Amino acid sequence: MRILLDVMGADREPAEIVRGAVLARAEYRDVEITLVGDEEKIAAALSDAGADRGDFTVVHEPAFISMEDSPMLAASSKHPSSMAKTLRMLADGEGDAAVSCGNTGALFTGATLICRRIPGVRRAALGMVFPYEKPILMLDCGANVTVTSEYLVQFATLGTCYMKNVFGIEEPTVGLLNNGAEPHKGTPLAVETYQALSARSDIRFIGNVEGKDIPFAPCDVLVCDGFTGNISLKSSEGLARFSMQKLTETVRGGNPIEKLAARILKNKFDKLNRFFDPKEYGGAPFLGLARPVIKAHGNSDANAVKNAIRQAAAYAGTGVIREITEHLAENAASAGQE
Q1: Does the residue 330 lie in any domain?
Q2: Which DSSP string corresponds to 180-235?
């Protein structure tokens, strides 16, 4: 398995991204990693991490896209960047999957224009697996701020194929994020999408899902527009951090009994903290693209990068893209016969 890692343009220094690659290489020996970025900085980071330079392929491209740059720069041939180089190498078959911690909009735009969408996919979507007892995939989480009911129905198909192949769920269920459970609730788009999903025999639609029910994972796939999904995702992350902070403050009180409780419960709190930490889950896949691309958090540390590489390898090693392609082709053929 060959993973292409863009080490530039993240919130952290390239050295932190490289350290993540070193961790991944040590843990997943069957994964070959190509580091794309400033060769001098990469070499220094590998040396500092005590890694064998021969364990990695390094592709020199010091230019990068910042978080403030226009997303269109990723697809422009006049503006070279480590992200564009990574995506072009993926499109040319020089890797099996790509990972980047860079500008989300640029990665989405570049991946769509360089790697292209699967035939029949109207819009690719950014998916995120929420870390609850039962995994739940939400999409879109930020790639498409405005959508149509057709896009949302396709998101349901993309998510169904992903959860089936990557998580081994035989018949994934699909919910529609809404402000009420009743079919008539929500915006005209929500009502129209509810009706469209209900009419599909190839999607196990369970109905509307309210935000308060998300942590209890009432479905395997939850579809929504990117604006709503991104706010929901970041609200959940913020609430988790706030809850853990307050919980930690409570058990670190000044009296002896509270201090004893802190020592006893420390390991359990550490496990709970990892459960809520998005860095433990690596990154989010762009579903609907012809090649596997993983968007890791811009502030990813080495552990998060390692997990994103693991996720990319898992994504590339399944038949998700092939199944989506075949599924859409069958639906198109059926529609043509009607």
Answers
A1: no
A2: -SSTT-S-HHHHHHHHHHHT-TTSEEEEEE-GGGGGG--SSEEE--HHHHHHHHHH
Is-contact 221 172, C-beta < 8 A?
Answer: yes
DSSP assigned state of 78 = T
- If we measure between CA atoms, which residue out of 99, 73, 97 comes closest to residue 84? 73
Quick check: is 104 in a domain?
A: yes
Measured in degrees and rounded to the nearest 5, phi and psi for residue 140 equal -95, 150
Domain count of the chain? 2
Same domain, 200 and 221: yes
- Residue 93 is predicted with a pLDDT of 96
Range of the domain at 47: 1-121+288-319
Q: What is the pLDDT of residue 271?
A: 57
Burial group, residue 90, by CB count within 10 angstroms (0-12, 13-18, 19+): buried
Tens-place pLDDT, residues 215-267: 888 999 999 999 999 898 888 778 777 877 776 676 666 667 666 666 666 56
**Which of 103, 89, 77, 116 minimizes the C-alpha distance to 2?**
89
pLDDT one-digit tens code per residue, 10-39: 999 999 999 999 999 999 989 999 999 999
Query: Phi/psi at 31 (nearest 5 deg)?
Result: -105, 120
Q: Which residues of the chain have pLDDT under 50?
A: 337
Residue 336 lies in a domain: no
Q: Say yes or no: 17 and 61 in one domain.
A: yes
| CATH number of the domain within which 275 lies | 3.40.718.10
Q: What pLDDT is recorded for position 245?
A: 75
Whether 264 maps to a domain, the answer reads yes
Distance CA 152, CA 147 (A): 7
Predicted TM-score (pTM) of the model is 0.88
